[in-house]
Amino acid sequence: MKGIIVVISGPSGVGKGTICKELIKKIDDACLSVSVTTRPRTAKEVNGKDYWFVDRNEFQRRIEKGMLLEYAEVFGNFYGTPKDKVDEAIEAGKVVLLEIDVQGGKQIKKLYPETVMIFIMPPTAKELAGRLRSRGRDDEETAKRRLSEAANEITAAKDFYPYMVVNDKLDAAVSEIIGIIETARKK
Fold first, then answer.
1. In this predicted model, which residue has the larger pLDDT, 148 or 55?
2. CA–CA distance from 112 to each of 50, 69, 88, 109, 165 (Å)?
3. pLDDT at 135
4. Theoretical Cys-Cys bridge with 3: which of 7, 90, 98, 110, CB 3.0 to 4.6 Å?
5. Alpha carbon separation from 171 to 16, 89, 101, 168, 175 (Å, rounded)
6. Total domain count for the chain?
7. Rounded CA separation 165/118 (Å)
């Protein structure tokens, strides 16, 4: 059986990464696509596991060679989805999770029309602001910029994503997404 692509998008701090980790644990044949990025690696991140870390020249080379399914510049860094890895996983019958932004999701949907598009919503804007601050990754200016961008992303997603899942309680959100994936696989 051929695999499927599931795009998981949502604003920074909404819990996309946590949700994807839970989906990997609960869906036997699910895998997470590891993105290529030009952003600096943190001390805790592992190349090839968290991201494929490359410099801007290498990223540009991958664009020119058609090695990326989609790519975008986000907050001054480039991110992209490696085509070869996704195609291998689909051919192996896997559920391929892509944790990418709305812009990237639209690009994937054009290439793979059967892609399942899921947007993760925060319970409230106030809750999202608290999550962004509590994770401690951003300075105050960056956190404000991310909150401002969240409103734009939510507006854009409403027209393009058939599934909007509110991440108020993690277990409930994960269960809802598993149900969406199971329904899509039966089609």
1. 55
2. 24, 10, 14, 5, 22
3. 58
4. 90
5. 13, 26, 23, 9, 6
6. 1
7. 7
Output the CA–CA distances (angstroms, integers) from residue 151 to 10, 16, 20, 147, in the order listed.
Answer: 10, 16, 22, 7
Phi and psi based region of residue 100 (left: phi greater than 0; alpha: psi -120 to 50; beta: remaining): beta
Q: pTM of the full predicted structure? A: 0.86
CA distance 139 to 137: 7
Could you tell me the two tokens for 86?
């996704």
With contact defined as beta carbons under 8 Å apart, do 33 and 116 qualify? no
pLDDT tens digit string along 13-57? 899 999 999 999 999 999 999 999 999 998 889 999 989 999 999
Q: Tokens in use for 87?
A: 């195609």
Closest CA to 71 of 52, 43, 47, 45: 52
> Which tokens go with 149?
């961008």
The radius of gyration of the chain from alpha carbons, rounded to an integer in Å, stands at 16
Sort 147 into a burial class: Cβ within 10 Å, 0-12 / 13-18 / 19+: middle
The angle at the Cα of 21, spanning 15 to 23, to the nearest 5 degrees, equals 100
- 39: domain CATH number? 3.40.50.300
Structural domain that includes position 78: 4-186
